[in-house]
């Protein structure tokens, strides 16, 4: 036979409620109200799609780089800066052995003098002594013609009397004709000497001189190219060569970072395109510093693309976005190449857009 045990009711003693002071109730209500206000303010600040507040974007710093090299080949004799050093525009960075180019310049200068002398000779024409010599040859030829004519006439007059033969007359005639031909040649030579050189010869000599001068300019330019100067203010990012190295034309010698202005690449979704008009002011900040940098939107791509992996977020992972560039005028030492940054753009910029447009870099 099975016996069942019935549960017995346990009496519960009522606990009287604890009295809450009125002051604690007031503080609790005040805390709840303050928390709601802070939450509302935070929602306002991160509201990317509202007409008020701040549009927050994420991107990376794109400091421009310049790969510097010599325009001529040669042996490096000087490397003036190391990595990390700041340089100013026009500063001498490196130098090549200039001796071969100095010799080429001297050779080109001598060719110029040679061409200039030849041109001067042609432009001045014949010397007075040459003209006098040609005139004397004409006088000599004239005298020979007079004598040959007299001999011919004498021989011809004696032909009828038999004192002269036909053979002697013919010989005298040939001698006369030869003397006259020599006189004609002497006179033409005198004319050439008096007239000077042909205009075509002078023009050719002038062209030769111009070519020689151009070769001097080229040699001087190549000599100047043995010195490498900084094209602008910057920071030496990479020192590629060392003294003694033989480099070819265009071989990298330095890589220079151009930090002014700094470019920041970011991406914006299509619904927010109207808030990132070129000329709009923006604030750029990093995780490593509390400093904020004032910038200006300078470029918005007209073509959509998928969100790049470097700035991919769960919300934008499959969305199409538009690339934009924020230009931050230097100096901005806290912004380094490739550094991730946060960009904040006030959605209401009516009062400040005119100032941003006035300060926007030219050509942005």
Structure description:
The chain is an alpha+beta fold and 364 residues long. The protein has three domains: 53-63 and 259-359, Efflux pump adaptor protein, beta barrel domain (Elongation Factor Tu (Ef-tu), domain 3, Beta Barrel); 66-98 and 225-254, RNA polymerase II/Efflux pump adaptor protein, barrel-sandwich hybrid domain (OB fold (Dihydrolipoamide Acetyltransferase, E2P)), CATH 2.40.50; 106-220. The chain has six helices and twelve strands. The strands form two sheets. It has a six-stranded antiparallel beta barrel. Strands 5-4-2-7 form a four-stranded antiparallel sheet, with no helix packed on it. A hairpin with a 6-residue loop joins strand 9 and strand 10. 18% of the residues are buried. Mean pLDDT is 79; it is low at 1-51 and 351-364.
Quick take:
By secondary structure, this protein is an alpha+beta fold. The protein is 39% helix and 26% strand. The radius of gyration is 49 Å and the shape is rod-shaped.
List keywords for this structure.
364 residues, Elongation Factor Tu (Ef-tu), domain 3, OB fold (Dihydrolipoamide Acetyltransferase, E2P), 3 domains, 6-stranded antiparallel β-barrel, 39% helix, rod-shaped, disordered N terminus, disordered C terminus
How many DSSP helices? 6
What is the terminal-to-terminal distance? Answer: 100 Å
The arrangement of helices and strands along the chain is: HEEEEHHHHEEEEEEEEH
| Radius of gyration, taken over Cα atoms and rounded to an integer in Å | 49 Å
Structural class of the secondary elements? Answer: alpha+beta
What is the 3D shape?
Answer: rod-shaped
Strand order of the largest sheet: 1-8-11-10-9-12
Unreliable sequence segments: 1-51, 351-364
Total number of distinct structural domains? 3
